[in-house]
């Protein structure tokens, strides 16, 4: 039986039309710091290693995070625009109503994070780790996720649109209703017993047949 496509309905971050621009000094940040209702633009955060930072109704624009560990961070109603978050440790984060737009997420660690109403659009997220994430109402759109790791993540109302997923790891994930039909990949790691109901294109079907161990013979 064909499953109906499930396009997640994403609630956008709820930010006021005006946010005061503020310079945040990394040296003054502390564990459990709460930062709200500001726009942070053009800054570089280097070597920040803090636990349980809280950002609410914040816009980050052209911000660079270098060698940062921000475990258990909470992001609520936050937008990242053209930011470099490569290799940042966001493990066990709580991320609600957040957009990542045209950001670098190369090697970013989001393992164990909880994502609710999140959009990752136009991002470079190769080698990113989403293992054991809990995703509900999440959209990966027009992003590069080659060799990314989603091992045993939980997907509900989660979709991929025009993403690059070559050699991504989707093992241990229930893929029923997950739409991969517009994505590009030559190889994908999945759990065969969890494939039922996954939405793919007719062109992708040959690749999935090989995953199932079938031999495709061309007629002369």
From TrEMBL:
InterPro entries (alphabetical): 5peptide_repeat, PA_immunity-related
Organism encoding this protein: Jeotgalibacillus marinus
Domain of life: Bacteria
Name the record gives this protein: Pentapeptide repeat-containing protein
